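Supplementary Text 2. Reproducibility record for the structural model of the 342-residue chain.

All settings were left at their defaults, and a single model was retained for analysis rather than an ensemble. We include the record here because the model underlies the residue-level annotations in Supplementary Table 4.
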Amino acid sequence: MPKSPLKYKVGVFVGLIAIALFIGFRYIQSASEDARGKEQGVVTFVFSPGTDALALASALRDAGIIRNEPAFLYRLFKERAWKKLQAGEYRLSGTMTIPEIINKLASGETVQKGVKVTFPEGFTAFDMARRLSEKGLPGDEFLKLVEAPPAALRKQFAFLSKLPETASLEGVLFPDTYFFSQEAGADGILLKMLENFEKQEKKIETFARASDAEWYRLLILASMLEAEVRSEEDRRLVADIFLRRLNMGMPLQSDATVKYVLEEKKIQHSLDDIAIDSAYNTYKYKGLPPGPISNPGLSSIRSAVFPEPNSYVYFLNNPETGQTVFAVTFEEHVKNKLENGL
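Retained model, structure tokens:
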């Protein structure tokens, strides 16, 4: 039977709709690669908390950052990125691709306001205070707070309750790049650094859950590893060496602890240096020093928590390359010292 004119027309109409939807989908799919916004320069865009996806797409279009809202929404949900976006102030441009815009909003690369200060891993509180002063920030006041933290501050963070009552905050000043406001003051600077340590500490669950005494012991060990060895692989080996020396009742003989006492960096210490009378001198006194000797990063903390079992007893660092050289016997160690110019 021949098709009725009505069925034919309906079939053609449905077919055209399907083709239109397919073409539209492919267009949105293609458009989701590039923003093609009218704003070709870098603009400041504020993504306010509580903004929904539709409102965000509309705001990006109004700011000239994207041209096609459906394309942005398609890419946003295709990558399941909506819940990852972080509110804040961003530098964006219509020359960016939509994936780049989404990645920036998801990574939280907000416009940072304030004075940029970078504290490398292994910096002591004194090093940090000096750098703050160099940046025109209250380094001296910061150091006073670190050396004698107020009781109220200790109650703000659970991990500070694990410190001995008379301990300074050396060791828990997390090394990182910060942006400090000129108006924040020394207490504001310290608070921001402690908040960062609290966040980082939780990344190593075994460390965060350790009992008070063990937690502080691991922190001290991590501070020594940070100051002694470069790579995480070598730090894990040295962690095991130090722990075995402690169990054997053997002095740790860490040059890093002597450097901390002398407050100066030397390639090799003299007999007078290693004879200095300080509880931090691990040549003179057995056991761990009474407190951290630096502010360690995550690599060193992980190494202290998860040491790598090995048969080495001695190690040294080549003064030129920084390479750590290990030895099982004292004779091997003496040979390594000669070969490495020590």
